[in-house]
Amino acid sequence: MANWLYSGPVGLMVFVFIIGVVARIVGAAPYSNIYNTLFLCDNTIMAKQKLSPTAKRMKALRDKLFAMTDDRRKKKAENQRKRRAAKKAGKNISGKDYDHNRKKFVSVKVNRGNGGKGTKAEG
Q1: DSSP H/E element including 96
Q2: Inter-axis angle of helices 53-67 and 70-88, to 10 degrees?
Q3: 19-22: long-range pairs with CB below 8 Å, 24+
Q4: Class of residue 20 by CB neighbours under 10 A (exposed 0-12, middle 13-18, buried 19+)
Q5: What pLDDT digit, counting tens, does each position of 2-14 carry?
Q6: Where are the alpha helices (DSSP H) in 27-90?
Q7: Percentage with pLDDT > 70 across the chain
Q8: Are 96 and 108 a contacting pair, CB within 8 Å?
Q9: How confident is the model at residue 28 (pLDDT cuts 50, 70, 90)?
């Protein structure tokens, strides 16, 4: 077999895959869960980040600082005004967010990730 198969991240994935398959056949639950997570997961539900207490505090601080920037505060205020107006007008906006680019309420799912281009591409 090729040397790349046993070294680096690819080798690790191959090893975990083989262990997972064997574990599924034998019925060893812990290794079977690793296999399920890495190879059978459909990634529709993202797991919570596993952060150390220090990293959690730092992330909370970064998130708070980002949320308090002028741009984010303006968008939040605009969103609140639009939601109040839409509710007053009798529109059903449950499960929807206001999209500042499209200038309308869209489902939460549609309003994430900039239409598949990722949030870094937003202007």
Answers
A1: strand 96-99
A2: 70
A3: none
A4: buried
A5: 554 455 555 655 6
A6: 29-35, 53-67, 70-88
A7: 57
A8: yes
A9: low
- The residue extents of the domains of the chain are 3-40, 68-112
Residue range 81-94, pLDDT digits in tens: 999 999 999 999 99
Cα 108–chain centre separation: 13
Cα distance between residue 89 and residue 32, in whole Å: 53
Q: Give the tokens for residue 104.
A: 């309308």
Tokens of 99: 């999209």
Q: Which positions ≥6 away from 12 have C-beta within 8 Å? A: none
